[in-house]
Design brief:
383 residues, alpha/beta, six-stranded mixed beta sheet, five-stranded antiparallel beta sheet
């Protein structure tokens, strides 16, 4: 081979390496798709189909899209046929595959006695989080109740009762190490469910789904739409509807990957530990010569970074804006407010750590017993 040909070959290889760095480095982006329910567990029921069938068909189409258009990705499915998979095994499967992301696909529903059963509609994407919303908790209870179909489920799930609100209290103190990336993935997918699949936007929400608690990577649970609504059921059961839903999730994954240079994987043990970002930040500030600040001064003076999760204490709801110094604020300062529907909701503090927010919450509760901690991102509350 001539020296000129060798040079041309080396230049070609170098050019290809620039175009396809992931492939040449042999790194795979591992996706675990979890079609909810299956086998003896039909999930929510529509008039003509059921949730387990819709979930599986959308999951298969998503699998094909990723395999066809994402050459550096490897897809694993918790089930590819109609059979039952326990919740814990779904999470274990994702952990064993060292997945970069976990996507659990479901169809939503409401109680048969609800007057809105045949009118309710819209898609929502869930991440692990505090269950301050009764609606979010009820959805999690319905999906988690699948574990009752397993023999001796109380042993497998360490006494956890999916139908008891008290069993979920433990989740309030849990912080998922991948929560920021999970929310980024959820927002990307939710946006595409609206744009690509034409679903009503029911937003990104947080709830204690068991499969999200036990997975050790960025993880989301997608509620495609309400199967109890005949019109939405028809869409989800159709080939066209399933293609659009799969394409929406795929587009969301693509968007997420563009905005996430590196996915951090953590072990099961790390997921169970309580993260301490504020302590790390304080150490970093000290090394950089920054001034030491108390948690309270940090909450009111720190600058919020883009896309950062900020905890605030919500303590009061009013029908109109309250003037500064009003007696209803009981001297609490400084405070902020945001509008939610027709209500004006007031918050105190701005914390990068849930631990710091909970410490301050104890003080606020002396003035406002019903106060609680909320999460915000880019100035907007995450429900």
């Amino acid at each position: 081979m001539s020296s000129l040909r060798v040079i041309k070959t080396l230049f070609t290889l170098f050019f290809l390496a620039l175009l396809f760095p992931v492939a040449t480095q042999g790194k795979e982006f591992v996706v675990v798709i979890d079609p909810g329910h299956g086998g003896k567990d039909a999930g929510a029921l529509g008039r003509n189909t059921n949730e387990k069938t819709v979930n599986l068909e959308v999951a298969k189409k998503l699998n094909r899209l990723i395999n066809a258009d994402m050459p550096d990705a490897r897809v694993h499915m918790t089930r590819d046929k109609d059979f039952f998979v326990p919740l814990q095994k779904r999470a274990d499967f994702a952990n064993e595959k060292h997945a970069d992301i976990f996507i659990s696909i479901h169809a939503n529903s409401v109680d048969a006695k609800s007057p809105m059963r045949t009118q309710v509609n819209g898609a929502a994407v869930y991440t692990l989080g505090l269950q301050r919303s009764d609606t979010n908790l009820s959805v999690a209870m319905r999906e988690n109740s699948v574990m009752k179909l397993e023999p001796d489920y109380t042993t497998t799930y360490q006494g956890f009762d999916p139908s008891s609100a008290e069993s979920y209290i433990a989740f309030e103190m849990m912080q998922h190490n991948n929560i920021d990336q999970s929310i980024a993935l959820a927002e990307a997918v939710q946006t595409q469910l609206v744009r690509t699949a034409g679903r009503k936007n029911n937003g990104v929400r947080q709830a204690p789904f068991w499969v999200l608690v036990r997975t050790s990577m960025p993880a989301i649970l997608v509620e495609l739409d309400f199967i109890c609504n005949p019109k939405m059921e028809k869409f989800m059961a159709s080939e066209e509807g399933q293609e659009k839903l799969a394409k929406a999730i795929y587009n969301g994954i693509v968007k997420y990957r563009k905005g996430t240079p590196k996915t951090t994987k953590t072990s099961k043990e790390e997921v169970a530990k309580k993260s301490k970002p504020t302590a790390d930040a304080k150490r970093s500030n000290k090394q950089d010569g920054g001034k030491k600040e108390s948690a309270e001064s940090q909450s009111s003076q720190s600058t919020q970074q883009a896309d950062e999760i900020i905890y605030k204490i919500q303590f009061l709801t009013a029908s109109t804006t309250i003037t500064k110094g009003n007696k209803r604020l009981k001297g609490l300062t400084p405070v902020e407010h945001y509008k939610d529907g027709g209500a004006v909701k007031y918050t105190y503090g701005s914390f990068t750590s849930l631990n710091d927010a909970n410490k301050e919450l104890k003080k606020v509760k002396k003035l406002f017993p019903d106060a609680f901690v909320i999460k915000t991102r880019d100035g907007k509350r995450i429900k």
